């Protein structure tokens, strides 16, 4: 049986039992988590950046956070924000299962854009956005503020289930994703941008 390259890439780095269990809890409550391949890529990116301080917007089941923590410095701290208390609750279970010490993470349950405004200027190495696309314009502005020079802003699920590349798709979420991509790509004095076709698409923008 021939496996297509995308599927091969998705499964290239396997998930451990803790991530598999976290993902299953997410399915039960309806979280929209990062894919296995995208998770392994972001873990690799965190390692390349020697990430000490990371923000994840959209905790979900916690599986994305586990991938990030795998790649971050052992002294680093992940701030993960979600507006659903149930998501935060199951993420805590995942962190406990993985023996992540409390000093390595902050789990915050509050409106995510409200929390972003309270984060410190130029203090973060990596910001992952996995939330409502219609808030992306605001999130990009806040990411620019809180990222250090050379830090990276990532929009997970950028393909929007395959809709973004189809100009006939004009629902608000798809348009918001498409416009965010155009804005980041055009602002080349602030961002260096690329698009990675793994998972449901990772849009990456490095702050210059």
UniProtKB/TrEMBL annotation:
The UniProt GO MF terms for this protein read: O-methyltransferase activity; S-adenosylmethionine-dependent methyltransferase activity
Which InterPro entries does the entry mention?
Cation-dep_OMT, SAM-dependent_MTases_sf, SAM_O-MeTrfase
Which parts of the chain are coiled coil?
none
CDD domains xref list: AdoMet_MTases
Which SUPFAM superfamilies would you find in this protein's record? S-adenosyl-L-methionine-dependent methyltransferases
The Gene Ontology biological process terms listed for this entry are: methylation
Q: Name one Pfam family in it.
A: Methyltransf_3
- Keyword annotations from UniProtKB, A to Z: Methyltransferase, S-adenosyl-L-methionine, Transferase
Q: Fetch the PANTHER family from UniProt.
A: O-METHYLTRANSFERASE RV1220C-RELATED (PTHR10509:SF85), O-METHYLTRANSFERASE-RELATED (PTHR10509)
Q: What is this protein called?
A: Unannotated protein
Species of the source: freshwater metagenome
């Amino acid at each position: 049986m021939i496996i297509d390259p995308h599927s091969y890439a998705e499964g290239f780095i396997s998930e451990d039992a803790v991530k598999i269990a976290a993902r299953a809890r997410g399915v039960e409550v309806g979280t929209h988590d990062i894919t296995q391949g995208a998770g392994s890529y972001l873990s690799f990116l965190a390692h390349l950046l020697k990430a000490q301080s990371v923000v994840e917007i959209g905790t979900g089941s916690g599986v994305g956070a586990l991938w990030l923590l795998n790649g971050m410095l052992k002294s680093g701290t992940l701030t993960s924000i979600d507006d659903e208390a149930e998501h935060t609750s199951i993420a805590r279970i995942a962190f406990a299962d993985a023996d992540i010490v409390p000093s390595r993470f902050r789990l915050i349950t509050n409106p995510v854009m409200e929390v972003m405004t309270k984060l410190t200027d130029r203090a973060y190495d990596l910001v992952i956005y996995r939330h409502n696309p219609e808030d992306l314009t605001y999130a990009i502005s806040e990411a620019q503020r809180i990222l250090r020079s050379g830090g990276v802003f990532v929009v997970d699920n950028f393909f929007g289930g395959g809709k973004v590349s189809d100009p006939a798709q004009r629902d608000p979420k798809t348009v918001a994703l498409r416009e965010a991509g155009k804005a980041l790509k055009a602002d080349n004095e602030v961002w260096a941008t690329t698009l990675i076709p793994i998972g449901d698409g990772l849009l990456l923008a490095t702050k210059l």
